[in-house]
Amino acid sequence: MIYQVYPRSFADSDGDGLGDLQGVIDHLDHLVDLGVGTIWLSPFFASPQEDYGYDISDYCDVAPEYGTLETAQALIDAAHDRGLKVMFDLVINHTSDQHPWFARSRASRSNPKSDWYIWRDGRGRGGRRPPNNWRSAMEVKSAWQWSADRQQWYLATFLPFQPDLNLRNPEVKEAVFEAVRFWLRRGVDGFRLDIFGYVMKDPEFRDNPFGPVVDGSQTRIWQRTFTENTDDSIAFAKELRAVVDEFADQGGGDRVLLGEVFGTPETLRRYLGDGDGLQLVFLFDFLAYTYSAEFFRDRIAAYEREFPPPLQPTYVLENHDRSRLIDRVGGDEARARTLAVLLCTLRGVPTIYQGQEIAMANTPMRLREARDPIARSFFSWVPEAVVQRVPERLNRDEVRTPMQWNSEPNAGFTSPVAVAWLPVHPGYRDRNVAVQDGVEGSMLELYRLLLRIRSERPSLHRGSLRLRPVDPSNPEVLTYERIDHLTGAGAGSPEVTMITVNFASSAAWIEPGGRVELLVATDPSVVVTGGRLHLPPCSAVVVAVMERTSTWP
Ligand code: GLC
């Protein structure tokens, strides 16, 4: 299980209103109590913070507001002392335009770093039209930025202040690999790879074809044939894997690479190579779900097909870029609880974003006041009244507000008299770690229970997954079993755990097909009686199958 910490908003140890690495160290026990196995920290490296750390100006240093290299080391060691693994965020598609590499590269066409970024002459008279039709990740604008210094265009796939590194240049590649080794030597267990699908663009700079695409959780107007998920990006994944494998035997087991890549399951699968690529890729489809048994059955079936054991799907319900789950379910906690059950019982790696475990909600903010550079760039030219009606509009600040630890002023995130860098959610007194701690039925206790059962039961943490065929009398019920063939009480009997989710707004009665014992229920009115399971609307149950009396078709 991977828990994402967004350091700026997790915990502030020195009262300046910004979270920091010492704050993370101080709260590691919360993560241990929750049942976390690995923490992934969003970037805390040297950066002008125009994209809050996703714009790095030195890969091997820590931004002073977060701590020092020593604090980073102390965090790695403190996590390891508690049995936690640590992943850092590797942002190598681009750097900040404040990185000294870029400053040099921009200075002239002939300096030693001139080819460290992707520079091209423009088209048209005087070269003042961008070199080709590549769009930035926001789609609206060209990905090319004009540099008056060089009288040339540089590529910035994300935002203009994030120039793309030229990873085809062997010197750049080596510099990046050295930064990776720098952290591996300090004991880091792996990396989450930021927008990894874009690392290698077409070397011939061919125009992308026009054509609207709905691809996983992303909708696009232009296809990204020549900029995203190219064969060379897949090859680069293998080169990076070879670098982390240099450290595989030096304590702590394998070092893991987890890619932020977008595409169909078939495309994403390619990043894993034949066991010689990335070990994990995020599967983002659950971020854009339809609340129905059919949607989840189809997605799970597709992922089981493309990522069969020993490969592992990596499921996501929240992160620092997308709406909080509780808002996506329209504030319906019952729905959020059923999805938590799915997340924690599916085969593979569940990921949790800080605050998800207490059902933190988006903090509504005016777009005009956004700090998030995407919200600013995307909506700067759209009237607020129109913006309010755009579906999926998101000011990412809304999901990055301070972690809600307790009911004190500032929610225990920072000193009660400090000014937090983003406002604390106004409802924090009713929703925080302290008020949910030990309270049966709270979201926090549900996550704790799910993660405990998951680690205790081999079928849940390493077993195979079998989807039950659709039950025509309960089409809105999804059932699957997790089966561990390696252990189990008695000669050769596998341990079996069954998970059933009722997506319907009416109750359902289910025949589990054997004698079962209740492990987790999202609702107190879930009952096992007379060999049948009763599931109220929007509920989920996890049961141990003690004895089978009938088999599924
Ligand atoms: C990824 C990050 C996002 C960041 C972007 C640019 O999508 O998750 O927060 O803004 O990459 O690095």
- Biggest sheet features: 8 strands, parallel, barrel
Classify the fold: give the CATH topology of the largest domain: TIM Barrel
CATH homologous group name of the largest domain:
Glycosidases
CATH class of the largest domain: Alpha Beta
**Average pLDDT rating:** 93
Poorly predicted regions: none
Quantity of strands, as a count: 23
The radius of gyration over CA amounts to: 24 Å
Small molecules bound in the structure, each named once: alpha-D-glucopyranose
- For the termini, the CA-CA separation is 32 Å
CATH architectural group of the largest domain: Alpha-Beta Barrel
Features:
553 residues; alpha/beta; TIM Barrel; Oligo-1,6-glucosidase, domain 2; Immunoglobulin-like; eight-stranded parallel β-barrel; five-stranded antiparallel sheet; 15 helices; globular; binds alpha-D-glucopyranose
Tell me about this structure.
- The chain folds into three domains: 2-95 and 169-450, Glycosidases (TIM Barrel), CATH 3.20.20.80; 100-155, Oligo-1,6-glucosidase, Domain 2 (Oligo-1,6-glucosidase, domain 2), CATH 3.90.400.10; 464-548, Golgi alpha-mannosidase II (Immunoglobulin-like).
- Helix content is 25%, strand content 20%.
- The model has no long low-confidence stretch (mean pLDDT 93).
- Helix 10 (333-345) packs parallel to helix 14.
- The longest helix has 16 residues, at 170-185.
- It has 15 helices and 23 strands.
- It has helices spanning 21-26, 28-34, 69-81, 100-107, 170-185, 231-245, 265-270, 293-306, 325-328, 333-345, 373-379, 384-387, 433-436, 443-456, 458-462, and strands at residues 2-5, 38-41, 45-46, 58-62, 85-90, 119-120, 144-147, 152-155, 190-193, 210-215, 218-222, 256-259, 280-283, 314-316, 349-353, 464-467, 477-484, 495-502, 508-510, 514-521, 527-529, 532-535, 539-548.
- 47% of the residues are buried.
- Alpha-D-glucopyranose binds at residues 51, 54, 91, 158, 194-195, 260, 320-321.
